[in-house]
């Protein structure tokens, strides 16, 4: 069996970072002559909790390289022909700095350079075959990927990779840049295109948004000899320059989604590369072109019976966990909420640990609030699989203490309240010396576990009634019927007549309140209130020949997974100082889920029917039969019961009123509604508004100027 990936054994893959830029007019050389390093300033702008700053000593490539494998037929089962590389072409995973005529980068990752191309790989790609795994181990991940790209092309090659990764490719002759991120954007990539004085069109990229905020240029003519025309020393990265503005559209969309979906960011001109996309750019090309390299192919069955498919779920999930653990020999544990996915991860990790004579570790979070505590279910799973379970009960005091730190760590406003319990769970694991955590994110979106999927099926049934019956009898009659039960019937019919995906947002705060009652008039004039639905419609329409259920799943892959849950768990684990992996997102398992018939995934009112049946007899019955909760934070309840938390929230909302985004009456009424019995619904709104203000107060960002477009 091939050895594990040597480049990942140091446990620093989640901390691997990169910055870089390319330009039309040999910017790198001019900046180097000025004595001011663009790369250094960008690098130093990365938040310190995001990476380990490297020593300047680099390991010798000769010490990492091995001779070509003896059994080339077995090892290179995907790569049929290979030229043994020169030692100078390969740099293993370490600190790499490159400055060419029009391209410069600083990377913690691996590098392969030929006469035509420079290829950099960050993160931890997990390979689809032992052959590629051995190439990556004996030479470098960048070299292994180069071989795959040359023989299979960008789309096919990148689609096969699991794990979290970013790819940077610079074609020297054509001066062409390609950036890529993994299928689910576990490893984020940000970019910004500028037309700089004396440099022309330039594109900057980074694994963190912060370095891109430093890229500004003087209003006076900028020379690259270290001086401006005014005689002041400087270069295009000087800190005194005006930073990018926050956009009004971003603030509006944040309240809608509670986060900001890619490709937009909260800052004007800065973008996020969406999941499963490549970015192509040349200095002569404006703007950069983002292209999807992976699109799921949904089917309604794979020609195999439902029962015959059951064993494949655990087999593929176990293979995914094995790949992750083989690549990361450091201590690995599991998040365990007590739900289906986390219990599956923990159970398979326990089996693997026993095979190695060990006992698996798991971490869970509890709340002393009725209806929110899932620790009893986590204990059931732990007992069933003989896990060593570590528990931590989050308190309202923990929330008050941690919130400012969490808000300050976020690159954008982020309103998912379960970020806080995820942080405390990861922090507890890190304090015990655990270096890697397995998270169950993705199972609900692959196998249809969210309640809204089943609700939409009920609404679809109304649309299946004859049109004459609906429009000629039922709907004309409803307004004349009394209240009570018929109010629910009227609501059901109203929602049924809303098409997907709009219907999914029926209870969204911005659909339950008129826009002119929420937003300041000057602010509202600068935003497109239809933009969030336009975005959702475009994503919903992307899958070819897919059922409405599969379209909803795909929409959630973008909105719930890539831009929300993975961002939440990943950023909180980074803040806690621990790495996280998502076995559910392995390409083989994802592709398998796309082959399952829609009516297998949901049967009547039974969510995740196929997945549950595949796990029956292995997972505890209590786990299979429980309702979904996860690490939901009882913020709305604690807001009523814990004065310091209430004071923090209300003080931030008062500060938010002064920014003139919102009508003050809207914020006041939201507080009143929360106090008058709508603790959960309006508690979530108060959380989202509070996190916006906390983030704004912690960031030196230029707010949108009201009344200007």
Arithmetic mean pLDDT: 84
Please tally the helical runs, counting DSSP H or I stretches of 4 or more residues: 30
Number of domains: 4
What CATH first level of the largest domain would be assigned? Alpha Beta
Our Rg estimate from Cα atoms comes to 26 Å
Report, as a whole number of angstroms, the end-to-end distance.
61 Å
Helix-residue proportion: 40-55%
Largest sheet: number of strands, sense, barrel closure? 11 strands, antiparallel
Oligomeric form: single chain
Tell me the strand percentage band.
5-15%
**What overall geometry do the principal axes of the alpha carbons give?**
globular
Number of strands: 16
The CATH superfamily of the largest domain turns out to be: HUPs
| Structural class by SSE content | alpha+beta
* CATH topology name of the largest domain: Rossmann fold
CATH architecture call of the largest domain: 3-Layer(aba) Sandwich
Low-confidence stretches: 1-15, 27-36, 50-83, 218-241
In short:
With 709 residues, this protein is of the alpha+beta class. 44% of the residues lie in helices and 15% in strands.
Structure description:
The structure is a single chain. The chain has 30 helices and 16 strands. The termini are far apart. A hairpin with a 3-residue loop joins strand 3 and strand 4. By secondary structure, the chain is an alpha+beta fold. The strands form two sheets. Strands 1, 2, 3, 4, 5, 6, 7, 8, 9, 10 and 11 form an eleven-stranded antiparallel sheet that branches. A five-stranded parallel sheet has the order 14-13-12-15-16, with helices on both faces. Helices cover 44% and strands 15% of the residues. The chain has four domains: 18-49 and 85-212 and 228-241 and 275-292, Glutamine Phosphoribosylpyrophosphate, subunit 1, domain 1; 306-448 and 555-633, HUPs (Rossmann fold, 3-Layer(aba) Sandwich), CATH 3.40.50.620; 452-517 and 535-545, no CATH class; 634-699, no CATH class. It is globular and about 80 Å long. Helix 27 crosses helix 30 (679-698).
């Amino acid at each position: 069996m091939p050895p594990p990936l040597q480049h990942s054994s140091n446990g620093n893959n989640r901390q691997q970072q990169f910055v870089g830029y390319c330009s039309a007019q040999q910017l790198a050389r001019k900046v180097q002559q000025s004595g001011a390093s663009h790369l250094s300033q960008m690098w130093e702008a990365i938040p310190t909790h995001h990476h380990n700053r490297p020593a300047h000593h680099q390991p010798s490539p000769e010490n990492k390289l091995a001779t070509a494998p003896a059994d080339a037929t077995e090892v290179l089962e995907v790569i049929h022909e290979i030229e043994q590389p020169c030692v100078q072409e390969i740099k293993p995973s370490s600190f790499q700095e490159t400055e060419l005529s029009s391209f410069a980068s600083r990377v913690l990752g691996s590098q392969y350079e030929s006469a035509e191309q420079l290829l950099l790989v960050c993160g931890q790609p997990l390979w689809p075959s032992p052959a590629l795994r051995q190439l990556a181990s004996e030479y470098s991940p960048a070299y292994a990927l180069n071989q795959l790209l040359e023989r299979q092309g960008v789309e096919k090659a990148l689609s096969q990779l699991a794990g979290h990764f970013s790819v940077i490719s610079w074609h020297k002759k054509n001066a062409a840049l390609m950036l890529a991120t993994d299928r689910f954007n576990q490893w984020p990539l940000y970019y910004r295109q500028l037309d700089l004085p004396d440099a022309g069109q330039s594109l900057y990229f980074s694994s963190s948004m912060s370095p891109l905020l430093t890229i500004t240029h003087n209003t006076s003519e900028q020379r690259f000899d270290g001086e401006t025309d005014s005689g002041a020393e400087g270069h295009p990265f000087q800190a005194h320059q005006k930073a990018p503005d926050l956009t009004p559209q971003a603030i509006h969309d944040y309240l809608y989604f509670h986060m900001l979906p890619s490709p937009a960011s909260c800052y004007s001109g800065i973008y996020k590369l969406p999941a499963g996309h490549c970015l192509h750019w040349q200095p002569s090309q404006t703007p950069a072109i983002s292209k999807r390299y992976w699109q799921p192919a949904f089917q309604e069955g794979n020609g195999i019976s439902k029962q015959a498919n059951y064993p494949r779920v655990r087999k593929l999930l176990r293979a995914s966990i094995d790949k992750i653990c083989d690549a990361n020999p450091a201590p690995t544990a599991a998040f365990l909420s007590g739900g289906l996915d986390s219990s599956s991860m923990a159970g398979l990790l326990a089996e693997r640990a026993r095979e190695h004579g060990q006992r698996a570790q798991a971490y869970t979070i509890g709340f002393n609030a009725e209806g929110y505590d899932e620790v009893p279910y986590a204990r059931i799973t732990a007992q069933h699989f003989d896990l060593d379970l570590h528990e931590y009960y989050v308190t309202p005091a923990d929330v008050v203490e941690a919130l400012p730190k969490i808000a300050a760590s976020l690159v954008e406003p982020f309103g998912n309240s379960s970020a806080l319990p995820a942080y405390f769970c990861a922090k507890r694991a890190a304090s015990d010396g655990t270096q890697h955590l397995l998270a169950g994110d993705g199972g609900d979106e692959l196998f249809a576990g969210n309640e809204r999927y089943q609700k939409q099926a009920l609404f679809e049934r109304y649309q299946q009634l004859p049109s004459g019956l609906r429009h000629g009898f039922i709907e004309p009659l409803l307004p004349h019927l009394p209240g009570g039960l018929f109010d629910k019937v009227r609501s059901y019919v109203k929602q049924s007549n809303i098409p997907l995906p709009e219907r999914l947002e029926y209870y969204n705060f911005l659909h339950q309140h008129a826009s002119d009652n929420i937003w300041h008039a000057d602010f509202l004039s600068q935003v497109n209130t239809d933009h969030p639905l336009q975005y959702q419609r475009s994503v919903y329409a992307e899958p070819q020949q897919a059922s409405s259920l599969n379209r909803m799943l795909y929409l959630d892959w973008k909105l719930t997974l890539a831009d929300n849950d993975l961002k939440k768990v990943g950023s909180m684990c980074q803040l806690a100082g621990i790495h996280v992996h998502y076995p559910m997102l392995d390409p083989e398992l994802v592709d398998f889920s796309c082959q399952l018939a829609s009516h297998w995934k949901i049967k009547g009112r039974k969510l995740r029917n196929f997945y549950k049946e595949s796990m029956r007899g292995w997972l505890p019955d209590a786990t299979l039969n429980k309702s979904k909760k996860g690490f939901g934070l009882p913020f709305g309840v604690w807001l009523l019961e814990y004065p310091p938390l209430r004071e923090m929230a209300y003080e931030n909302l008062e500060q938010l009123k002064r920014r003139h985004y919102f009508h003050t009456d809207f914020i006041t009424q939201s507080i009143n509604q929360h106090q008058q019995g709508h603790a959960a619904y309006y508690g979530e709104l108060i959380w989202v508004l509070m996190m916006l203000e906390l983030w704004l107060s912690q960031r030196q960002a230029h707010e949108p100027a009201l009344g200007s477009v």
